[in-house]
Amino acid sequence: MWHYNKIIVGNIIEQMRRLCNMTQSWLAKALDFMYKRQFQRIENRETELYCR
Fold first, then answer.
1. 3 phi and psi, to 5 degrees?
2. Percent of the chain with pLDDT over 70
3. What pLDDT does residue 15 have?
4. H helices of 1-52, where?
5. Half-sphere exposure in the Cβ direction for 46 (13 Å, CA)
6. Which of 44, 48, 49, 51 is 20 to 30 A from 1 (CA-CA)?
7. Which residue from 4, 13, 18, 3 is spatially nearest to 33, judged by alpha carbons?
8. Which residues is 2 bridged to in the sheet?
9. Strand 2-4 relative to strand 49-51: parallel, antiparallel, unpaired?
């Protein structure tokens, strides 16, 4: 399992989303997040992202 720094990942996601003029809701849906709040927590650096 990979562990990513929540500050770095949150910053990158937010910057790229804003650059592409996307809303959090749209991107969360496009990335297949069940709840928008899950995605908001990652972008707002409240939780860490784990990948397998």
1. -125, 125
2. 85
3. 92
4. 6-19, 24-30, 36-43
5. 7
6. 44
7. 13
8. 51
9. antiparallel
For residue 3, with 0-12 CB atoms within 10 Å meaning exposed, 13-18 middle and 19 or more buried, which class applies?
A: exposed
pTM surpassing 0.70? no
Residues paired with residue 50 on neighbouring β-strands, in sequence order:
3
CA distances from 33 to 10, 15, 39, 43 (A): 15, 19, 7, 13
Query: Residue 45: what residue type?
Result: R
Asked if residue 8 lies in contact with residue 40, where contact means CB atoms within 8 angstroms, the answer is no
Q: How far is CA 48 from CA 13, 19, 21, 33, 40, in A?
A: 13, 22, 24, 15, 11
